[in-house]
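Record format v2
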Amino acid sequence: MMDFIEGLGSSTRTSFNKLGRATFFLGQTVSGIMSVLLRPGLLLKQLYSVGVMSFLIITISGLFVGMVLGLQGYYTLSDFGAEETLGVMVAASLVRELGPVVSALLFAGRAGSALTAEIGLMKATEQLSGMEMMAIDPVKRIITPRFLAGLISMPLLAGLFSAVGIIGGQIVGSGLLGVDEGAYWSQMQASIDFYDDIVNGVIKSIVFGFVASWIALFEGYDAIPTSEGVSRATTRTVVNSAFSILGLDFILTALMFGDH
Amino acid sequence: MNNRISDQDSLVSVRDLTFSRGNKKIFDDISLDFQRGKVTAIMGPSGTGKTTMLKLIGGQLFPDKGTVLVDGQNVHQLRRADLYTLRKRLGMLFQSGALLTDMSVFDNVAFPLREHTQLPESMIRTLVLMKLQAVGLRGASQLMPNELSGGMARRVALARAIALDPMMIMYDEPFTGQDPISMGVLVHLIKSLNTILGLTSIIVSHDVHDTMAIADYIYVLSGGKIVGQGSPKEIQESDSEWVQQFMTGAADGPVHFHYPAKDYVDDLMSSGKRY
């Protein structure tokens, strides 16, 4: 029993310790934003590797998710003779929920894990330490551009995911199942609200981008500099990002759509 | 306390330094001096904290007690900006080379110049080629780090370390894992750079033969203490058992062959319960 309490205490302490380090790390990262903005070249390179390189997985996944939504939505709605509103259903699900959430999960798996492995290996091969000894702050030079790139890429990728998904829903809905194309688009246009749906979705994806990039970069920076340490850190990135994204999604949804 | 070198002559002086990791004392109240313009070596068995000493001098680690003065400045009391200004005058060669793997050899050497100066690209090119010429790798300027052998990577790292014309270079195990030719090249480079550029060098190594050949002064560390110091000749003639075991590579001596363990027979006869 004493062992249990002791273990509980020590793991709580470790968690709080880590949370403190992560917060300090975030502060350091954010304080470098100005200097990165003055050197757009650094940011552009990271936007390419974090954002553009995730383009394909986001587009293809978005298309399939949209097609499945079209299919499932049609079967359910047609029972009530309401298949004309398929466009609304597909668009609302994507823009409010699936777009930000699924693209953030994919982002954590594709870009987040890569970031953790990259930073962790840089630490293991003394590149970060070497930079410090060259009087170059590795957080400002390496971490901040990647963080900013994640923050900017995430809402754009989520937007892309939703847009492609809506097209996927339309291909299945009107192309294969015979929903009227005009109704698909016009119902959607009439029902989707810019502020309530789209802006809220964008806010969600910015929050997810922030959290996923923070977790990925911190786990890499905090990794034990061995091959096992980096591999564990990469796993933690994906697991912790997924938990955080889904948990935050619930909180944000409750706050944003609570009064409906 | 070492009184043979006066404080004016030493570029780095470590005074009454104590440093622990967890419960283990890595350094126990030791003092060292590194003389200007000389090659000073820190030697000792693996795990005696030789690399840790370099990190303490570079301000990457903080001591529990004691001071480290580099060119008259107390490294651990400097503000971050001042520490970075000081570090621009220190070069460090890491054991792995620590080259940035996403950049070519040329860009790696140009990296500190681009980060710290506003020089035009044409001048950076000239400087980089000069530094690469000095280490004999001008022809390899377009290669990526993964295309280099271990010895070449260390030479590139050396070119990068001298890019900003530092006053001192710290070498972390420069000879480990090198073939005889690369080793010869590195020994020659370290000695000649030190003379030609008027540098001060600190070498951390456990390679007895090659370090003895180029060092002007040697400290032998073990168990957190200095067990021997002096010129290579003095070290060779030292009557300390520690130093003699280290120099001759004897398997048993003051440093035991066996890791501390309970009695052998007791251990064999016990139930084998894991602990």
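Residues 89 and 110 of chain B are 16 Å apart (CA to CA).
The first strand of chain B starts at residue 10 and ends at 21.
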